[in-house]
Write a structure and sequence with these properties.
Order of helices and strands: EHEEEHEEHEEHEHEHHH
Helix content: 40-55%
Largest sheet: 10 strands, mixed
Shape: globular
Number of domains: 1
Strand content: 25-35%
CATH topology: Rossmann fold
Radius of gyration: 17 Å
Low-confidence stretches: none
Number of strands: 10
Mean pLDDT: 89
Number of helices: 8
Structural class: alpha/beta
CATH superfamily: Nucleoside phosphorylase domain
CATH architecture: 3-Layer(aba) Sandwich
Length: 237
Amino acid sequence: MIAVTFALPAESSEFLRRLRDRTGAERNGLRIVRGNMADQTIEVLHTGVGEKVCRQRVGNFLQNQQFDILMSTGFAGALNDELQVGDLLLARNFSTIDPSESNSFLSNLQIHRADLLTVHGLIDSREERDKIGRASGAAAVDMETEFIARACAEHGVPLLSLRVITDTPRKPFPAPMKVLFDIERQRTDLLKFGTFFLKHPNRAPRMVQFARRIAHARKILASALVGLVRSMAGSGY
């Protein structure tokens, strides 16, 4: 059985659409989506955004459950200009799959292999991206993978971390983090969101462009994940 984690439904929707016999399930207080692909049973968990909720959900998800592999996936932000929106990043510092195995899975995909850094909040400015990139040596950031990796190590589950780039130094977020997402509530505050763009109408085109980038990146990620699952099934993983 294969586990796949995304932070939010906004990241998983295209992949879920491609699952056969999709059903919802409850386990250990978690809402899980279960389905089939290439004769493989897939369980999908939405971890939420950030350390607190992610650690709790992933810990419960892996409790008393056996998985052949967990694929930690979703969106990530680039820290340099080498990565572009829609690029795929295999986090070499978190993935525990043997390199020869991962190469066989990913041989048909154009993927960047680099370090991924887990941070505590969305990064707004280019200056901050540059500073974090220089200090860490990482190529991109997310807000969950480190905690997923710890849980996988604790439970002895092989991990493959694959992310798609949705924002870069040249194509940053269209609004501050507090406008785009409320980590405490684990959702966007629509009143705050609407108020911001009413006060800053010049930002609206950037928001539209960002939404289009997200949709495109989501399709790229889903196609890559489908290819991975099929490759695993074909190799008898």
